[in-house]
Specification:
Order of helices and strands: HHEEEEEEH
Strand content: 15-25%
Radius of gyration: 38 Å
Helix content: 40-55%
Number of strands: 6
Structural class: alpha+beta
Shape: elongated
Length: about 210
């Protein structure tokens, strides 16, 4: 005579399965929340990367574009500032790479509308059409997905634009008004002349003999 399983055994197995499914769903939600927090944290660090890159560029310009006799101390300060900023930038990029965050490096490549937002186009004599000439805002990927879109300038066939020269040296430039002599009105000059001119001498009348 075979023993029959208790009638409540299937119900207990189904209840355990429901509990396990709920635990898996809860763990999945927690993982999604953790991924979302990590993504927001990494995205919040990207403006710091922009700031360090811009500061390094300005420090380099400070050392190159000094007029007159360069001050050795100022040049040394500019070089030290550039080195410190570069070191901080490399450290930040290294920490981002540990979290699988890397720059897109789109220059010379075709622009993907998912990863890049086109700001403008610029003629270029050799670059293929619709390729990225430069990134005005660096794009980053988290793994294989875009963490931040790049803002780019695309190439179009044509001669390269002429570099902007000194506005004061261009034709039709407006002269500096501060270098012009101060002009007074005719009425004011007359009034000033009356104030400064000597009084006319009275003519002596001739005595008739």
């Amino acid at each position: 005579m075979t023993t029959q399983p208790p009638p409540d055994a299937p119900d207990a197995a189904a209840a355990d399965l429901i509990k396990l499914r709920r635990r898996v769903e809860a763990l999945g939600r927690k993982r999604d929340e953790a991924d979302d927090r990590l993504r927001k944290l990494l995205a919040a660090l990207l403006p710091l990367d922009d700031l360090l890159a811009d500061t390094a560029m300005r420090a380099e310009q400070l050392g190159e574009h000094r007029t007159g006799r360069p001050d050795p101390q100022a040049v040394a300060v500019a070089i030290a500032l550039r080195e410190q900023v570069d070191a901080a930038h490399r450290l930040l990029r290294s920490e981002l790479a540990r979290c699988d965050v890397r720059p897109m490096e789109l220059t010379g490549k075709a622009a993907d509308p998912v990863e890049a937002r086109v700001l403008s186009v610029e003629p270029h004599p050799t670059a293929p059409a619709d390729t990225v000439l430069r990134e005005t805002v660096t794009g980053f990927r988290l793994g294989l997905t875009a963490l931040r879109q790049a803002e780019v300038v695309l190439a179009t066939p044509g001669p390269a634009p002429e570099p902007a020269g000194d506005p004061a040296a261009t034709d039709g430039a407006v002269p500096d008004r501060r270098a012009q002599p101060h002009r007074t009105s005719r009425a004011r000059r007359r009034a000033q002349g009356k104030k400064t001119s000597p009084l006319p001498r009275k003519r002596r009348s001739r005595r008739h003999r």
